[in-house]
């Protein structure tokens, strides 16, 4: 994919086509929920938006923490720019994070096979519960 010269000229310093660059834009500490709330800007010009798992891994590397403590909440991609804003929560304790984050966010932050397995277990439990109510 070729990038127009006019776009290359207006890119911020350090950003180049074909390279993914992560920048922490906002970093807040939330002591009540024992987490850091980050807003990260990702430049990926000429490349697709990184997956949640890729973002999660990169943020864990950047901060020097275990990947199980990192939860990607949202990825907002700007059309035509190759730029995304990502909302991330990094917990002090991964178990506390699992209690706080909704199940759908936890499932989105898992590998597909693992998430599908857990979803199937939840469906089976609901079906069993429904059968018991009918009796």
SSE order and pairing:
Layout: H1 5-9, E1 21-30, E2 35-43, H2 52-63, E3 70-78, E4 83-91, H3 94-100, H4 103-108, H5 112-134
Antiparallel strand pairs: 1-2, 2-4, 3-4
Largest sheet: 4 strands, antiparallel
Q: What is the rounded distance between the termini?
A: 61 Å
Specify the structural class. alpha+beta
Number of strands: 4
Q: Key terms for this structure?
A:
alpha+beta, Alpha-Beta Plaits, 5 helices, 27% strand, globular
Concise structural overview:
By secondary structure, the chain is of the alpha+beta class. The protein contains five helices and four strands; from the N terminus they run H-E-E-H-E-E-H-H-H.
Describe this structure in words.
With 135 residues, the chain is an alpha+beta fold. It folds into two domains: 97 residues, Alpha-Beta Plaits; 25 residues. Helices cover 39% and strands 27% of the residues. The protein is built from five helices and four strands, in the order αββαββααα. Strands 1-2-4-3 form a four-stranded antiparallel β-sheet. The mean pLDDT is 89.
């Amino acid at each position: 994919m070729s990038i127009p010269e006019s776009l290359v000229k207006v890119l911020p310093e350090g950003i180049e086509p074909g390279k993914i660059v992560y920048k922490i834009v906002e970093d807040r500490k939330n002591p009540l929920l024992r987490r850091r709330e980050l807003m990260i800007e990702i430049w990926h010009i000429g490349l697709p938006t990184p997956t949640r798992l890729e973002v999660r891994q990169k943020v864990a590397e950047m901060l020097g923490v275990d990947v199980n403590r990192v939860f990607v909440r949202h990825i907002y991609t700007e059309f035509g720019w190759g730029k995304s804003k990502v909302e991330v929560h990094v917990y002090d304790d991964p178990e506390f994070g699992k209690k706080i984050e909704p199940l759908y966010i936890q499932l989105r932050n898992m590998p597909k096979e693992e998430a599908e397995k857990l979803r199937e277990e939840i469906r089976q439990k609901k079906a069993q519960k429904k059968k018991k109510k009918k009796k």
